[in-house]
Amino acid sequence: MRPFVSLARAAALAALLAGAAPFLAPAPAFAQGAACGNDAEGFEQWLAGFKQEAAAQGISRSVISRSLDNIIYDHNTIKADRAQGVFRQSFEQFSNRMVPPRVAKGAALVRKYQPLLDRIEKQYGVPGPVLVAIWGLETDFGSFNGKYDTIQSLATLAYDCRRSDKFRAELLDALRIVQRGDLTPGNMHGAWAGEIGQTQFMPSSYLKFAVDYDGKGRADLIRSVPDVLASTAKFLQSYGWQAGQGWEPGQPNFPVIQQWNASAVYSKTIAALATRIDEASR
User: Fold this and answer.
1) Whole-structure pTM over 0.90, yes or no?
2) In the chain, at which residue ranges do the beta strands (DSSP E only) sit?
3) What is the pLDDT of residue 34?
4) Closest by Cα among 152, 208, 159 to 180
5) Distance, CA of 133 to CA of 228 (rounded, Å)
């Protein structure tokens, strides 16, 4: 369901860590919007058209202004997009690099957050080691969420002609996150393709699955560990996670892990890390 994002994430992880989530259906084309473009020329005209479309979609003028008035065409985002390629590392190569350095810290975090993880598992059915494994692989347990301005990257990719409709839908959803009060535009930094937070949700997934699990009145997947872990569990539950069943290849929950990332290498690495963390945390 998310093959494009999995390629982007896999390429970024090969450089060092990034993340992804499924796209919503493409938004309808602008009624009066400017054409897409593959360079900076025309971006301001396109952005003016997008602002009109966002207003027509119910985004407030203040949110549009705060989110979009000062953004520019981001050449670094385009460079990262053009540099992505098919992930060519074998499972052995990738897992041997990514799993061993994260087992001890992952096990320590499972023990640290055991009451929280038990409560999440009771509600969503997903065991703590799986959630912590995803957390570790996506952002090294929240230590590096990404440096790109999310809204600026999404606007650049929405203007770009390669996947305009997909990224326009994600950009609208990013503005809806701001309007809902979960995050401010200045908070929203992540990977180049628009992923947000400690387990790297695309804005569409943020809107669908983000949970205010710490009870602070908004879902914050950047700073709140309870929100991050519960939202990740909700995502997996929504794709059919079976409580009490295994997650290794060939077991009932492995296809659900593949919904997180379609790359066989990456999904097998999640499963392997989760098993190692589970064993080490006992």
Assistant:
1) no
2) 148-149, 189-190
3) 61
4) 208
5) 13
